Automatic annotation (TrEMBL):
Any matching Pfam family: EPSP_synthase
Active-site feature positions: D314 (proton acceptor)
Subunit organization: Monomer.
EC number: 2.5.1.19
Similarity comment: family membership: Belongs to the EPSP synthase family.
Name used for this protein in its record: 3-phosphoshikimate 1-carboxyvinyltransferase
Annotated keywords: Amino-acid biosynthesis, Aromatic amino acid biosynthesis, Cytoplasm, Transferase
UniProt pathway: Metabolic intermediate biosynthesis; chorismate biosynthesis; chorismate from D-erythrose 4-phosphate and phosphoenolpyruvate: step 6/7
Intracellular or extracellular location(s): Cytoplasm
Major localisation: cytoplasm
Length: 431
């Protein structure tokens, strides 16, 4: 349990480099493990989720050295993994599970996979069904849940698949399987999801086409180990952006943040709410980055619809908090995917923010937030909880900055899934 105090009157100040991007760190490990030769990763996210992906590759016999945020992988290609001696632990990580189901779907041995309580509730059929069409042999509990077994297999064949939901995890699983299959794999996306897998495959010397919502990939020649520099995670930076916007007298600069256009929806949505975000030092490399300066500003309510969701899916909890302080109503629709994240985020964020006095109604696929409500503290009877969800925990901690009394929260360990040093960094900008 932790006690969180309101922000000081002088506001939040300084420069901060939040940790490396979670999605890109997972992928750097995966491509490093299947490429030939050494891959070095810089600014790697040293957090629970990504360490589960690392643990899987070590269990498969890949040599990986880690020194804080630097990682060195001795890649040997896809054909040299060793059968693991124990079941593979995915922890809380949907990205590890779904991407690895694709990547490991053509190995000569069986692998049992399992995860924690939250991950064991999350739907896997969305990956299993198209992978089964490709010839993968994966069995899951009740056909949809962990634990499960990825069976030995050598028969992957390309398919054409129209994605029923916008999901980078599903798309990436199919790309990673398509890279090993005979024939072409075509994935049709109605709305673009984050394209880190496509960008990284190209960086490692692979070939993948992406045009008008159709992604085409075939069996790849040997990939070559790379030096990967991971940008700071925009999903982590978003908590500080909203913190600075809402906390009087603040000015924060977030350094080196990834602004890949398939991930930077939070910038567009905050701008639509009236935020003036200043981008500088823009570096237009494979994964573009910028420094983002944010000052305290009044915001107004907006409509967030299905087309806005994929590029900001992980930022909806913190945007919802911003909306409680905006003028007027914010309506979020087309966001049913939030119900199958680490928690049912529509339910958990409505529950937590309501405890602080916010005025929010849940909808089946979103919510209506009536803005302009002051937030009070939490008492023992309205103790805030993370519900084991890192992003709900960080949202609560940011809410505490503008609450009129002390906020008490339990389950803070959940934050280590993506940002183990979050509270320390928050304290740093409060000094
Ligand atoms: C991720 C994709 C998103 C996101 C998750 C990371 C990824 O999930 O919510 O935190 O790295 O591909 P979905 O693909 O389920 O939308």
């Amino acid at each position: 349990m932790i006690r969180l105090t309101p922000a000081p009157k002088r506001g939040l100040h300084g420069q901060l480099t939040v940790p490396g991007d979670k999605s890109i760190s997972h992928r750097a490990l995966m491509f490093g493990a299947i490429a030939q030769g050494v891959t070095e990763i810089e600014n790697f996210l040293d957090s629970d989720d990504v360490l589960h992906t690392m643990g899987v590759f070590r269990a498969l016999g890949v040599q990986i050295e880690q020194n804080g945020t630097r990682v060195r992988i001795q890649g040997q290609g896809l054909d040299h993994f060793q059968a693991p001696k124990a079941p593979l632990d995915m922890g809380n990580s949907g990205t590890s599970t779904r991407l690895l189901m694709g990547l490991l779907s053509q190995q000569p041995f069986d692998m049992t996979i399992f995860g924690d309580g939250s991950l064991s509730q999350r739907p896997m059929q969305r990956v299993l069904a198209p992978l089964a069409q490709m010839g993968a042999q994966i069995t899951l509990t009740d056909g949809d849940k962990l634990p499960g077994v990825i069976h030995a297999n050598h028969t992957l064949t390309g398919i054409t698949y129209e994605m029923p939901v916008a999901s980078a995890q599903v798309k990436s699983a199919l790309i990673l399987a398509g890279m090993q299959a005979t024939g072409q794999t075509k994935i049709i996306e109605k709305l673009p999801s984050r394209d880190h897998t496509e960008r990284m495959l190209r960086q490692f010397g692979g070939d993948i086409q992406s045009e008008n919502g159709v992604i085409t990939v075939s069996r790849q020649p040997a990939l070559v180990g790379q030096h990967v520099v991971v940008p700071a995670d925009i999903s982590s930076a978003a908590f500080f952006m909203v913190a600075a916007l809402m906390t009087p007298n603040s000015e924060l600069t977030l350094k080196n943040v990834g602004i890949n256009p398939t991930r930077d929806g939070v910038l567009r949505l905050l701008r639509r709410m009236g935020a003036d975000l200043q981008l500088s030092n823009i570096d237009d490399t494979n994964e573009p980055t910028a420094d983002i300066t944010v000052r305290t500003q009044p915001l107004h309510g907006i409509h967030i619809t299905a087309a806005d969701i994929p590029s900001a899916v992980d930022e909806i909890p913190i945007l919802a908090l911003a909306a409680t302080q905006a003028q007027g109503d914010t309506v979020i629709s087309g966001a049913a995917e939030l119900r199958v994240k680490e928690t049912d985020r529509i339910a958990t964020l409505v529950r937590e923010l309501t405890k602080l006095g916010a005025d929010i109604e849940a909808l089946p696929d979103g919510m209506i937030i009536h803005g302009g409500t002051p937030l009070h503290g939490s008492t023992d009877s309205t103790l805030l909880e993370t519900h084991g969800d890192h992003r709900i925990g960080m949202m609560n901690a940011v809410a505490a900055l503008i609450a009129h009394q002390e906020v008490v929260m339990t389950g803070e360990d959940a934050m280590s899934v993506s940002y183990p040093g979050f509270l320390a960094d928050l304290m740093q900008v409060m000094r």
